[in-house]
Design brief:
single chain, alpha/beta, Spore Coat Polysaccharide Biosynthesis Protein SpsA, Chain A, eight-stranded mixed β-sheet, about 45% helix
Length: about 300
Amino acid sequence: MKSASIAAVCVATYRRPDGLRKLLQSLNELALDGLEDVQLKIVVVDNDGTASARAVVEEFSRMRWPLDYTVEPSRGEPYARNAALERAGNADIIAFIDDDECADRQWLAELVETQRRTQADVVFGPVLPRFDVTPPRWLVKSGVFDPLDYPPDSAQHFAYVGNTLVRAALFADARFSERFARLGGVDTHFFMKAHLRGCKIVWSATARVYESIPPSRMRIAWLVRREFRRGNTLSLCLLELEASTWRRLKRTLHAAARIARGSVFILSAVVRGRAALVLGLRESAFGLGLLAGLFNYEYKEYP
């Protein structure tokens, strides 16, 4: 008889009680039809030294799945996620989901089935937006929150932790880099490194989670800053993991192309409106972030 595999769903949280409550409720309602050989447990790491999430976790003391709660006082995403890995113990597979997201009922089953079908090291899926308030028309038209879309089971060179399943063996000699605690892009660095080591990363089109988008993220300034940081992170990762002369030159040309493309969008905004302006600013910011990273400039997104 085949022994059961252990799956740990890891959640890092910081002062989002309402979001955490909604997330835990969605995890409690997961459907694991066809996965009778999987033993599931939930790991919640509270990144607030005052243990502010404890009260929410205690509301789920009778959850369908074993629920492990711990506090990681060192502030920053890598500290919380690495603490979650330690608490995951002997899990065979580890899933990550964020405290501003909710899981579709079939979410975990789709991730697991995709992993078994493809024998991938990493499986990740789409994050669909749920706006807390009605978004402005220009934001919808710009498409900046449209979820990624790839063919099912297609190979990818990246992933993110907001909706991901990872074979635990990958963490035998690897952890999330503490260097990026204030910079952001912790997942970018980890999965880029995994890809360069030959790990197989695939897309699960049907493993869906839903992300809450507050009004603060619907502002042009936030959208532009996030794109600059994203570009900055990518180049910092490049310098650390793949800094050949050819790759640096290719990255420089890519940055120039993105800035030029952004400029065209900005100029076209006179005719095309605010959505084009936002797209242009984001493209230009991304390109500038790429260039800044190549010169080892570190944009600290988090205090």
